[in-house]
């Protein structure tokens, strides 16, 4: 590892944000290969796993990255981002045990459905301001059942719940006028965190075409149309109101 860990962490974070922020219409191979090369340089300096596009990650012409390649890269970035907070504090002798314990106050559970873009955008936002997103499927199983794992990982100070149009449903009398709904596990976990943390410690974010559960009418929630980035400032206000300590960007 290099001596100046903070510099490497900063450069890697910047590189990851540059990749996420790519707005080109086509995911050109030469651009993304350059991105990955620069990302791997800083990841290697920090002792982290490097990324490599496989043959099936390219289009048949080889000139662009296909959706499988892009999603694999995004998953790799999410894993790198989850490891950076611990790396940036490794070897700092001045870090006290009380400060280490205080890291729990930065954990934010992210409840999500099948919309991986919304999940990755939310994780990225939380990490950029110094908070630690907790996503259940990324956590170790340790021989636990799913509900045991959920209960253990739910020891957080705040929860962000993403209601995205993953399922459809309707009342019997409304059949067949189906509406988009969040997955059942998302609704269950939303209710769980309302009960465990209280409504002031839960932020419900929903995509505009999703039917909301009637029980949360009147509860504050944040709607967006295409991207979670649309409500970044509103989410920061909610986190601040809940007394979470974070760095504005």
Care to count the β-strands? 7
Strand order of the largest sheet: 2-1-3-6-7
Proportion of helical residues:
40-55%
Q: What is the CA-based Rg, rounded?
A: 20 Å
Q: Low-confidence spans: pLDDT under 50, at least 5 residues?
A: 89-102
End-to-end separation: 28 Å
User: Which class of secondary structure composition applies to the elements?
Assistant: alpha/beta
Largest sheet, in brief, is: 5 strands, parallel
Tertiary shape: globular
Beta percentage is: 5-15%
Q: What is the H/E order? A: HHHHEHEHEEEHEEH
On the 0-100 scale, what is the average pLDDT?
81
Write up what this structure looks like.
The structure is a single chain. With 249 residues, the chain is an alpha/beta fold. The chain contains eight helices and seven strands. The strands form two sheets. It has a five-stranded parallel β-sheet with strand order 2-1-3-6-7, sandwiched between helices. The chain has a two-stranded antiparallel sheet with strand order 4-5. Strand 1, helix 5 and strand 2 form a beta-alpha-beta unit. Helix 1 packs antiparallel against helix 2 and helix 1 runs antiparallel to helix 3. The longest helix is centred in the N-terminal third of the chain and has 23 residues. It is globular and about 55 Å long. About 6% of the residues have low confidence.
């Amino acid at each position: 590892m290099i001596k100046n860990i903070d510099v490497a962490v900063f450069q890697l974070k910047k590189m990851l944000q540059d990749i996420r922020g790519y707005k080109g219409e086509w995911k050109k191979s030469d651009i993304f290969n350059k991105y990955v090369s620069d990302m791997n340089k800083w990841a290697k300096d920090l002792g982290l796993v490097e990324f490599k596009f496989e043959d099936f990650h390219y289009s048949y012409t080889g000139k662009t990255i296909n959706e499988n390649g892009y999603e694999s890269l995004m998953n790799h970035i999410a894993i790198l981002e989850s490891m950076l907070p611990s790396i940036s504090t490794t070897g700092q002798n001045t870090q006290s045990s009380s400060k280490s314990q205080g890291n729990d106050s930065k954990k934010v559970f992210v409840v999500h459905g099948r919309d991986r873009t919304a999940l990755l955008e939310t994780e990225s936002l939380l990490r950029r301001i110094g908070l630690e997103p907790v996503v259940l499927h990324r956590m170790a199983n340790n021989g636990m059942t799913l509900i045991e794992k959920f209960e253990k990982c739910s020891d957080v100070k705040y929860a962000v719940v993403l209601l995205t149009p993953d399922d459809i449903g309707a009342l019997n009398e409304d059949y067949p006028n189906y509406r988009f709904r969040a997955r059942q596990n998302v609704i269950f976990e939303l209710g769980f965190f309302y009960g465990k943390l209280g409504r002031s410690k839960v932020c419900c974010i929903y995509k505009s075409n999703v039917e909301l559960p009637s029980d949360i009418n009147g509860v504050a929630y944040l709607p967006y149309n295409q991207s979670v980035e649309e409500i970044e400032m509103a989410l920061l206000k909610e986190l601040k109101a809940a007394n979470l300590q974070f760095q504005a960007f």
